[in-house]
Design goal:
Chain A: This is SKP1-like protein. The complex is a heterodimer. By secondary structure, chain A is mainly α. Chain A is built from 8 helices and 3 strands, in the order E-E-H-H-E-H-H-H-H-H-H. The chains are: A mainly alpha, B mainly beta.
Chain lengths: 165, 428
């Protein structure tokens, strides 16, 4: 059983607190460097300011499994097992939430999960229509109809075989 | 720590110190983050996404995004296809096709997709100088000493014809081209090496005149060669681009014969713009340049050593060996890896599939794959002129996206042109 010295408390934007093993929290580069700055201090609460609790929970879940799998498969096979877990992990997350999650992960600077979420978003929009991409990212089309038609015309081949959703 | 991570950390600390903090996550993904997501997308979707909005149009068309995307594609090593070119006698057509490069053996090679080829060669087919990051460099000789050189991105159907080179010798022996990428200035370059004729008749002079084309500047300029060179790059040898340098098989022109007796590796570094020379394994040094070829597979250089049929007047090969340089630049690490013996003879060896099979052209011009362990030969039903066959991993990129197809590209200021100024022009 780890002692409380090995724990850190992460506080979400709503003020919700999460007690996490250091081994897990140290994957968040921001948390790691804040703790290094405050070495020796008894204050083990790190405020994550703008990150909502639901994303803090997701990030912790990911790295908890990451750390456990790494320990369990030290001899090899870690990457395969991690891939399996990542698939399950992503299945539980709503597609709209991926956007919030990627911003949270980017803010906390957690490279492994960042790559996973960016790739998941890219996969999600692959084969989607331009209209869907606009809606997904909340982007207003500022082209006139003529301008848009001209750009589409320039590379007509790229618009074959695209889903309507 | 990366600059981005450092900046993020500094801003985080500043926010902590000031106590002036945002209380919610921003509603939308910022541009830096968007680049991280978009660089993971396939070229086709990115081309579509240019009409999402003006800011997306400029982002996706920007040179910095195009190189971030190219770098990511390179690093993630997602090439799952081969590009194959061959010229068929009957159809009199230059065919460019894509084939799966996966672990499956044999027939899956035949599922193919044809690429539209927008050019017509003065001779039967173009010489493929080389490929780099999704661009192919093609060259066509239409008169003595005059060549059309084209950079072509088949994925997005964009191309660029190079301006005429400057260097022309009255007594030129040969012209050799090389194509690659200068990572320091983030630009594509074509090197043109012009060898002069020696005094005593047909012999070549080892000190060449060299000029270099930069895509960003769309111009040729001369390059000084200060070093004296032992080897001459052969126009018969293929070139490969690896680790920032173009590699050719070279020969020592002061040897007893012109093209054999003393072979070596010649490199031209695209960033430093200098030649380097390297030794080849002892047992191939004495071959003719006709019997040795160079290639690259999974970031490793390989050599193909062809063994001639002994009782033949014509140059015909009945077997070949493939050498691999296991550690780049370490001459001692050349290892003879495979030996291939085809009934009926070998025309040309093209390369290796991910499944481990060797792709070859038989002497009758048919494409085959060869499994080393089982000695099995699969006939793939594709036939063409032996020398017209070319194979390379297919790499999708956005290079040449901006600007119109034609003889000279707009200077880089066209990156900031408003979309309404972009006029498609395929009339070349």
């Amino acid at each position: 059983m780890a002692s409380t010295d090995d724990k850190v408390i992460l506080k979400s934007s709503e003020g919700e607190c999460f007690e996490v093993d250091m081994a897990v929290a140290s994957h968040l580069q921001i948390v790691k460097s804040v703790l290094e700055d405050c070495e020796g201090s008894s204050d083990k609460v790190v405020s994550l300011f703008i990150v909502e609790a639901k994303y803090v929970a997701m990030i912790i879940e990911y790295y908890k499994n990451y750390v456990e799998l790494k320990e369990k498969h030290e001899e090899g096979g870690f990457e395969e097992k991690l891939k399996e877990f990542e698939k399950q992990f992503l299945e539980q997350i709503d597609k709209k939430e991926l956007k919030g999650l990627v911003m949270a992960v980017n803010y906390l600077n957690a490279p492994a999960l960042f790559d996973v979420v960016c790739t998941a978003i890219a996969k999600h929009i692959e084969n989607k229509s331009v209209e869907y991409v606009r809606e997904y990212f909340g982007i207003v089309n500022d082209f006139t109809a003529e301008e848009e038609a001209q750009i589409r015309e320039e590379h007509r081949w790229a618009y074959d075989g695209v889903n309507d959703d | 720590m990366s600059r981005l991570a450092l900046r993020r950390q500094v801003s985080f600390r500043r926010k902590r110190e000031k106590g002036a903090l945002e209380t919610t996550m921003p509603n939308n993904i910022d541009q830096e983050l968007l680049v991280e997501i978009l660089k993971r997308l396939a070229v086709k979707l990115l081309v579509q996404c240019r009409c999402v909005s003006k800011s997306w149009y400029f982002l996706i068309s920007s040179p910095s995004f195009i190189s971030a995307h190219t770098r990511y594609t390179l690093e993630s090593n997602r090439s799952t296809k081969f590009l194959l070119r061959h010229y068929n006698w009957n159809s009199k057509k230059e065919n460019y096709t894509l084939h799966p490069d996966d672990d499956k053996k044999g027939n899956s090679f035949c599922e193919c997709q044809e690429l539209a080829f927008p050019f017509k060669s003065y001779s039967q087919y173009f010489e493929i100088v080389g490929s780099c990051n999704g661009l192919l460099c093609l060259s066509d000789t239409y008169a003595t000493n005059a060549r059309t050189i084209i950079l072509w991105n088949p994925t997005i159907s964009k191309w660029m014809t190079l301006p005429m080179p400057n260097v022309n010798l009255d007594h030129a022996y040969m012209f050799v081209l090389g194509f690659g990428f200068d990572a320091k200035i983030n630009d594509y370059k074509v090197v043109r090496i012009v060898y002069g004729m020696g005094d005593e008749g047909r012999k070549v002079v080892a000190a060449p005149k060299v000029e270099l084309y930069e895509l960003g500047k769309n111009a040729w300029r001369n390059v000084n060669v200060s070093k004296s060179l032992r080897y001459v790059t052969s126009e018969l040898s293929l070139q490969v681009f690896l680790n920032g340098a173009v590699h050719w098989i070279g020969y020592n022109p002061s040897g007893a014969y012109n093209d054999f007796g003393d072979l070596g590796l010649v490199l031209f570094d695209m960033s430093d713009e200098i030649f380097r020379e390297q030794k080849l394994p002892e047992s191939v040094v004495g071959l003719s340049v006709l019997d040795l070829s160079i290639g690259v597979s999974r970031q490793l250089l390989f050599l193909i050593q062809y063994n001639r049929k002994t009782h033949s007047q014509w140059i015909r090969y009945d077997s070949c060996c493939i050498w691999v340089m296991k550690e780049y630049s370490n001459v001692e690490s050349w290892t003879k890896q495979f030996a291939v013996n085809l009934n009926g003879g070998i025309g040309k060896a093209l390369g290796l599939r991910k499944s481990g099979e060797i792709v070859l052209v038989a002497s009758n011009g048919e494409l085959v794959t060869y499994e080393v362990q089982s000695d099995n030969v699969h006939h793939l039903g594709i036939k063409g002129i032996v020398n017209s066959f070319y194979m390379d991993p297919y790499f999708e990129s956005l290079v040449l996206l901006v600007g119109i197809n034609g003889f000279s590209r707009q200077p880089s200021s066209c990156n900031t042109a408003t979309p309404s100024l972009v006029s498609p022009d395929y009339g070349v």
